[in-house]
Amino acid sequence: MFEWLILGVIAIAVLFVIVVYNGLIRIRNEVDNSFAQIDVQLKRRNDLIPNLVETVRGYAKHEREVFDSVTRARSALLSAKTVGEKARASNMLTETLKSLFAVSENYPQLKANENFMQLQEELSGTENKIAYSRQHYNDVVMEFNIRIQTFPNNLFAGTFGFTKRELFAAPEEERKVPQVKF
Amino acid sequence: METLFEQVRSNKLRSYLMFLFFIILLGILGAVLGLVWGDVNIGLFVAVFISILYSFFAYYSGDQLILKMTGAREATKKEFPFLINTVEGLAIAAGLPAPKAYVIDDSAMNAFATGRDPQHASITVTTGLLKVMKREELEGVIAHEMSHVQNYDIRFMMLTAIMVGLTTLISDFILRSIWYGGKRGSSRRGVHPAIILIGVFFAILTPLIGQLIQFAISRQREYLADANAAVLTRYPPGLASALEKIKKDPDPLVDNANKATAHLFISTPFRDRTDFVTNLFSTHPPIDERIKRLKAM
């Protein structure tokens, strides 16, 4: 009788661990998947940039400084490996692209160029997708981190190799307090 | 507020209940019709058979029918890059596959989402809306529609549209068939007046029930989708300002909208949205109240 009781308790404990383990695997895959989504958008933006720089250069030859900083930020992103590096490089690229578009404001002919307008829409669309994929990724990561740090999951999360994931940091300006109108 | 998981579950449950309700209702109608025409069982059997068949049709092709009825056409990336980018972006935010984007060539500002699940969903906007909205406003509108997609509102709303549409047709048909059938019958064998009464009762009741369902589901649903949209964009003023613009739309009438599809839209697609009676029986919550709630977030 007593042996059965012990066996029962063990069986329940094993079942519990299995359920928790599967849950953690599921959400870790979600984390990986949502990071891949950011990567897709980062790559998309990187692919658009050479074309954009060429188009702008056609109208604004002597804005060399801006072109250089865009190109540098782009290659920095290409060589970034970790989440933190990618986030920093991506945010820098966002900033330099902003100054590129700010510069192009001074060239009415460029602004009227159809190719340029298309690229501008594509780039701001992609910037938005980066922001949204970052938002989704950070939500999932936060859930994952909470999951592996709370009791009782924290008892065996480490044993199974689940470690805390890094958030994809937002650009500086977005961290400022948003304007609230009353 | 219900969690997303609870919303999905309740929408799935409601969809099943809708099927059941629809099949039972049509079954009773069929039985009454059978009584009038002589055989209850055949009437019942035929009605149940047809309603099950129709339920399958509604589930798998309802969205296509709705898109046809509203005159929507698929939006290409070439023609509407702004729309496609926004839809794709918010699908990413919601962690969903990107729904197909459609447009209706209409100057009224409106939008709706339909489909049976997030994997088979579409979002439609009018060209009038696209013309007027700025990026963050369109994002608000699309986020609102994306919320309907995400929590399976689209499934239940699509079934409601397709089934209420048919019950209205059928009750029309019954009223007529009793009218003419009764005339013919009275000269030969005489139909029992009670049967006619039941028939008329059902014929009037059915579309009424359908309407009631639509009212009941829509209002709360719109508030919830507004709130979820704010979660997706993290920027409630975008949708609030979009709703302001929709409110001031001088010609809100979407030409191809009808009673069966009205509840799908983000804002009521008919005229006269301000008077008291319309509000009381409207499928949509008052737009001012929605704006107020968004601004309070």
Structural commentary:
With 182 residues, chain A is an all-alpha fold. Chain A has a single domain (17-160), classed as LemA-like domain (de novo design (two linked rop proteins)), CATH 1.20.1440.20. Chain A is 80% helix and 0% strand. Chain A is built from 7 helices and no strands. In chain A, α1 (2-59) runs antiparallel to α2 and α2 packs antiparallel against α3 (83-104). Chain A is rod-shaped and about 90 Å long. The N and C termini of chain A lie far apart (70 Å). The mean pLDDT of chain A is 87. Chain B is an alpha+beta fold and 297 residues long. Chain B has one domain. Chain B has helices spanning 4-37, 40-69, 81-94, 127-132, 135-150, 153-188, 193-233, 236-247, 276-280, 287-296; strands at residues 72-74, 100-104, 111-117, 120-126. The two termini of chain B are 14 Å apart. The mean pLDDT of chain B is 83.
Describe the secondary structure blueprint for this structure.
The complex is a heterodimer of chains A (182) and B (297).
Chain A: H1 2-59, H2 64-79, H3 83-104, H4 108-112, H5 114-149, H6 153-157, H7 172-175
Chain B: H1 4-37, H2 40-69, E1 72-74, H3 81-94, E2 100-104, E3 111-117, E4 120-126, H4 127-132, H5 135-150, H6 153-188, H7 193-233, H8 236-247, H9 276-280, H10 287-296
Parallel strand pairs in B: 2-4
Antiparallel strand pairs in B: 1-2, 3-4
Helix pairs in contact in B: 1-2, 1-6, 1-7, 2-6, 3-5, 5-7, 5-8, 6-7, 8-10
